[in-house]
Amino acid sequence: MMNKKMEHLTEEVNQLLSETIPNSKLNTNLEESMRYSLEAGGKRIRPVLLLLTLEMLTDQYKKGFSSALALEMIHTYSLIHDDLPPMDNDDYRRGKLTNHKVFGEWKAILAGDALLTKAFDMIVNDDSLNDVAKVKLIKRLSFASGHLGMVGGQTLDMQSEGAETNIDLDTLEKIHNAKTGALLKFAVMAAVDIAEPENEVSNALESYSEHLGLMFQIKDDLLDIYGDEAKLGKAVGSDIENDKSTYVSLLGQQGAEDKLKHHTDKAYKCLNQLPKQYNTDNLVYIIELFNNRES
After folding, report:
1. What's the mean pLDDT in 38-66?
2. Total domains, the chain
3. Where is the signal peptide (predicted)?
């Protein structure tokens, strides 16, 4: 359950996303396919986290909108590709038919490709940012979404599937620091790139973002065991069915719960290290949201 501030920011993000991809002169329905997944719902956690962090650091949080929209485009493209038959082969996402089930596989691939490239276009064309900030953001987003970030993590995850593959906890954390954590880390650190706070603030927020990423994934693994399919918008138990290594499979349910608490406590500690001038209430709320979410 979001608080009022998050709800307001989510509405702003949704409105801007709906205006971002008009039809082109090429007379294809590629844009329709892009919008289908981009506007399919979701909690917009990543863009909202970026905006909340920036609002804590500066009163000019609207400077983060282009990065927030770019981040959601990257996330959405990754979901389109993840759902394809060679990957997760999912028919539904957030309770709706997946992109390739509506538009076909080749167009879903191209819609994902187009969202990926559109993301960088959003940042480049933001007149509220200076060139130094744009370069920092593009560099950070390229790393977070590329072969050393999200895509690399997904690759290692795919290679680690199957009953014949046994990975240890260190490898699992390496997967999720990249696959899930990289974009969450970008959300927080993009705000740092824009606001340019002192190093002690930047370091504390970077650690906070890393613990958030692991919290998010551990909770995902737990929800696959006891989550409500109606709230999740997808079937539970798929990790077991696909012989995926998870925090639950490696540590047991109680061990995964303990690991979640460990990273939760660490995330709180990171925020407590920030100077008193910063109001961390909304970032504390994000920790609680990640810890207690049902979808």
Report:
1. 94
2. 1
3. none
